[in-house]
Write a structure and sequence with these properties.
single chain, alpha+beta, 8-stranded antiparallel sheet, Arc Repressor Mutant, subunit A, about 25% strand, 10 helices, Multidrug-efflux Transporter 1 Regulator Bmrr, Chain A, globular, Homeodomain-like_sf
Length: about 280
C-alpha cells in the first residue's frame, strides 16, 4: 500500500511540473527509488510511463486553454515551454490529430486525460492462472537495445518485437532455443542508467547474438491467452492493482521477464503469454 501512496505523490510531482522537462531518472535517484522497479509499477498502475503521463496531461491542459480562449495561442505556447508557435502547432497536431484552431469544434471527441487517481481493488478470485516456482539463473541469447528512462514505453518493446519478426529474425532466434524455457523471452533491466531490453531465447548453444543471464530466485508465473500487445499490460495491471495485495511476499521489480509461447505474432488474438514476476 505504501507503494501506491508514493505513486500518488509522484503524480502530484508531475502535475506540479507539467510545463517542465523532467529528468525522471534523476528525480527517482534523488528520492532513493530504483528507476526500473518504479517505472514498472507506475506503468502497471497508471497504464502509461511517467513520461507519457506528463506529455498527455500537458496536452490536455493545453486543449482546455485553447477551448476556453482566455489567452492567445502564442502565449499558451510560450507558457508551456515551446520555442515558437510552429513547434507548438506541430506537436499539438501530432498529439491530438487536429490543429489548435480546431479545438473548439472537436473538444468533445479529443482523447483527453484528467489527473489520475485510482482505487486499489483487493483480489478475490484469480483472473490469470499462476504458480510460484524457484528458477535457477539461465542464459538468454538475442538482440539488445538501450533506451533512455525518460521516454521509454512498452511501445518500444512491442515495436522491437515486431521489427524482429518482420525481418525473419524471430525464426532465426528460435533455431537456438535449446534451453529449458521454450518461447521468445523479453528481458528488461537497468544498465548504466539506461533501460536494456533484450528479445531472445533460452539457449546453451554458441550463437552470433548478444547474451545475458537471468537472476536466480522465486517467481510467480502468470499465464494468459489473447493479443499479446494488450494481454501483457492487462496481466501487469492485475498483478499490481489486485494480486500483490493478497501476496505475502514483496515483489522484485528490478527486472522483468515475459515469455511469448506461441504464436509469436504479438497482434494474434490467441497468443499464449507468460509474465514472470520475481519475488523478494
Amino acid at each position: 500500500m505504501e507503494t501506491v501512496n508514493f505513486i500518488e505523490k509522484f503524480i502530484i510531482y508531475i502535475e506540479d511540473h507539467l510545463r517542465e522537462e523532467i529528468d525522471f531518472s534523476e528525480a527517482l535517484y534523488k528520492l532513493g527509488v530504483e528507476p526500473k522497479s518504479f517505472i514498472t509499477i507506475f506503468t502497471s498502475l497508471v497504464g502509461m510511463t511517467p513520461y507519457e503521463y506528463q506529455q498527455k496531461r500537458r496536452m490536455t491542459e493545453i486543449a482546455y486553454e485553447l477551448y476556453e480562449g482566455h489567452r492567445r495561442l502564442i502565449d499558451i505556447a510560450k507558457y508551456y515551454g515551446f520555442k515558437d508557435a510552429d513547434e507548438f502547432k506541430h506537436r499539438y497536431r501530432e498529439s491530438m490529430g487536429i490543429s489548435p484552431y480546431e479545438t473548439d469544434k472537436y473538444i468533445g471527441t479529443l482523447d483527453l486525460l484528467e489527473r489520475i487517481t485510482f482505487e486499489v481493488v483487493p483480489v478475490d478470485k484469480p483472473e490469470y492462472p499462476s504458480r510460484t516456482v524457484y528458477v535457477e539463473s539461465f542464459r538468454i541469447v538475442g538482440f539488445t537495445q538501450y533506451f533512455s528512462l525518460n521516454d521509454y514505453s512498452r511501445t518500444n518493446k512491442l515495436n522491437m518485437l515486431k521489427n524482429l519478426e518482420k525481418n525473419g529474425l524471430i525464426d532465426e532466434l528460435l533455431g537456438f532455443n535449446s534451453g529449458r524455457i521454450k518461447g521468445v523471452i523479453l528481458h528488461e533491466r537497468i544498465v548504466r542508467d539506461e533501460l536494456e531490453l533484450m528479445v531472445g531465447v533460452a539457449s546453451s548453444d554458441a550463437s552470433p547474438f548478444n547474451e545475458t543471464f537471468t537472476e536466480s530466485g522465486d517467481f510467480t508465473i502468470f499465464e494468459g491467452t489473447g493479443r499479446a500487445s494488450m494481454l501483457m499490460e492487462d496481466i501487469y495491471r492485475y498483478i499490481f492493482r489486485r494480486w500483490r495485495f493478497k501476496s505475502t511476499r514483496e515483489l522484485n521489480c528490478d527486472f522483468s521477464i515475459e515469455v511469448l509461447k506461441s504464436p509469436f505474432d504479438i497482434d494474434y488474438d490467441d497468443s499464449k503469454l507468460q509474465v514472470w514476476q520475481a519475488l523478494e
